[in-house]
Specification:
This protein is mainly α. It is built from 18 helices and four strands. Helix 3 crosses helix 17 and helix 8 runs parallel beside helix 12. The longest helix has 42 residues. It starts with 16 loop residues before the first helix and ends in a 15-residue tail after the last helix.
Length: 584
Amino acid sequence: MPEEKRPDEPDVADDSESDQAEVYASLAEQRYPISSYTPVAYENLEAAPETDDYPDTGSGGRFRELALPKVPKLRHVVGPSAIMLGASLGSGETLFWPHLVASYGWGLYWLFLVAVCLHFVVNTEIQRWSLATGESVFRAFERVHPVVPLAMLIGGFVSLGWPGWAASAAQIGAQGLGLGTYDIVGVDVVGWRLFGIALMVFIWVTYQVTPLMYNVVESLQLVLVALSIAFALLLFVLIGSVDVLVGVPGSLTTVGDYSPVGTIAVLVGALAYAGAGGYLNLSQSLWIREKGYGMGRYQGRIKNPFAGDDPETVHEDGFTFTPDTQNLKRWRGWWRVTQLEHLLTFFFGLVLVTTMLVVVAVSQAPGATSDAVDMWLIEIAPSVGGLATSVIYVTLFLALFTTEYAIIESFVRNSSDIIYELYGRDAGWSLPRLFWGLLTVFCGWGVLILTLPISIADPFGLLVVGAAMSGLLMWPYIVVVQLVNTVRLPEHTMPGWGRVAAMWLAAAFFGYFSVLLVGTGLATRLGLATFAVRPAVLGSAPGGYVLWASYLLVQTYTMYRVARAKVAADGTVADAATAQGWFS
């Protein structure tokens, strides 16, 4: 028998074949690649003891005990991060970052690299609670206080409620197709509005073609993401500059000027959209539950209420597992494939596409002065001509439409979960019907805005506002996620010190730029000069110092609570180190 590795080694232990069979699922046991669900007799399960071996219930009910499912192969769990990548492609990667770097130089590109690394950590920490308990991150927030998920719902609507992505995708698609103005029953209708309405209707219809609505979203997003990446690479081959690409490393030592308020708003939005950003990031929790990751496999999936299939139950209080050797090894395996799926799909996909498009923008429109959409369509597309112009239109449309689709999916899934847990469950509502109703209302809202004669002269301006709001939303939920994952989870499933430090950095990073945006906005837009802030902190106005002090207070409190919980949990679970793997 091979010698067993020490439990603190980063890779999966080289166990005997029998041990491996108990930890990793065989091909016959795989129920992927779309999604997986194992129904359970919930009421017959034992409630987990309220001890250090199990999650803290907070203000919620007790968890039920079940074995952690066996770990599947990586290729069978690909999907949730592809949807997240799709939500990112049409925002930061296609518009914000190419525009920022082309306008202000490579000195801002290092911020993208920092932000995408932090998004990787934040997104996987958002997944942690659902992986360990099967509950959504919003249910975890509710266990802290019901006002927390409610605040997320309001922030999500403020940042995503206006269909800016739909307008941008429709305008670019219509311009590429040469659509004009049409007379319909005596009324002149702009072609891009008709195209935008058609896209909204198409998205709504796709949810009606399968009983499991997540499955069609994942399948379509995988196709759209693959096409977006392919056309971005083609665009780089056609008009990108290899010399500019080679010179990128040497260009990262300078720091760009982002002091003007307009630039700060774009920058904060770009930092949020170095991933999906804001409210969208929180969907990772629900997507991995729909996929069947970890304890999420015991929670039901949302089905089309009109497809004829019996609904699957999403239990209010989730599940937990006994920290025996088998389950601890399974947790280590699950955490490994979860991180790899996000790293290989989301992280590398973002870095690849963004770098290619930034190089194209810098090569073709250095010192760009127009907004991001006009930079591509007015400054770059006409100058390159031929096939490259067509590829620009296709690339932009695919990226924006992929993001529009993912935003609708994310907003509806997040909001239905919050409303159901805060009110709908006790009121006897059906979660699938609530989801379907919100989907219909949100798509209908988009159609209404595109139908009404409302001037949308600056769709990119709407995107900047929404993106900046997404950036402001990130700091508070990063703080709450840290507290939930350390204060509430037991030692074997809580994050290690490396991740704790990374989350501290993420909160500090997004908090800093949030204060910068709020202070500069109050001083410049509202004329409240007393709240003026400076990037170096020193030299800020009195009200600006209050903003910086509040930021420092929140950071200090969070770090203290998290560190105290980590120290207190040390040694409370026998053999907890067995569950620890790479960057746990």
